[in-house]
Amino acid sequence: MIAALVAGLLAGYGIAVPVGAVATYLVALTARTSLKVGAFAALGVATADGLYALIAAIGGSTLAHAIEPIMLPLQLASVSVLITLAVRGVATAVSQYRKRQTTARAEEIPVRPARAFTALLGITMVNPLTVVYFAALVLGGQTATAPNDSEQAVFVLAVFVASASWQLLLASSGALLGRALTGGRGRLTTAMASSALITALAIHLLISVS
Predict the structure, then answer these.
(1) pLDDT digits (tens, 9 = 90+) for 148-183
(2) Which residues contact 145 (CB under 8 A, 6 or more apart)?
(3) Nearest alpha-carbon partner for 25 in 8, 10, 37, 13
């Protein structure tokens, strides 16, 4: 049981800690909206990680074989989603800056917590890094003795807790950033930088696919 807990925590932090496009978007979203919205978005990411951990725990080597034929479509879908997010982020920031909207963040970007949760859940579910990571976890964790149901449950829960704790930390940093950037120019600069980074990551992914 302890081994399953440690393995789950390591797996959860292993997929959550590297800062990629999803983490960048999470921080930027929280900075532009609120900590509540960011927290729900963070839980969306953690839920996706937990679902993949569940599939990895009960799916065995079948997961790797099932993923292989759809890797390219998943990668292309991820690129499309990331570029769309980047373009939308720039367009929204520019529009708000031109209108010089200086009201509360919730009025500027009416993103509901449930919508943020669903969006980040979907983005993470099609993130090839998450798919590949847990597929490799399955292949690397094959042993002669299969774990029992309790160990699987502990592993999945540990993955979720580890991922959620890190994503909530990122959301908190985004909320602090949002408080610091109260001016329209500051928010415009942040949105532009975030979108540029997301676009660069998407282009890098597209190059690796081709």
Answers:
(1) 678 788 888 998 999 999 999 989 988 887 766 555
(2) none
(3) 37
Q: For residue 97, give both structure tokens.
A: 């800056």
Helix ranges (H only) for the chain are 2-16, 21-32, 35-59, 62-67, 71-99, 105-108, 113-125, 128-140, 149-180, 184-209
| 194/29 Cα distance (integer angstroms) | 10
**118-132: average pLDDT:** 80
Q: Distance (Å, rounded) from C-alpha 156 to C-alpha 164?
A: 12
* Residue 159, token pair as written in the block: 């993955």
Mean pLDDT for the stretch of residues 182-209: 69
Q: What is the DSSP letter of 100?
A: T
On whether the CB atoms of residues 8 and 156 are closer than 8 A, the answer is: yes
Q: Which among 71, 1, 23 is positioned nearest to 171, based on CA atoms?
A: 23
Residue 133, C-beta contacts closer than 8 angstroms, at least 6 positions apart? 14, 15, 52
How far, in Å, are 26, 28, 42, 47, 100 from residue 117 at the CA level? 11, 15, 7, 9, 28
Give me 99's structure tokens: 């209108």
Task: Name every residue whose Cβ is closer than 8 Å to that of residue 3 and which is 6 or more positions away in sequence.
Answer: 151
DSSP state of 177: H
- Cα radius of gyration rounded to whole Å, the chain: 18
Residue 32: its pLDDT value, please?
A: 81
Instruction: Give pLDDT tens digits for 180-191.
Output: 655 566 667 766
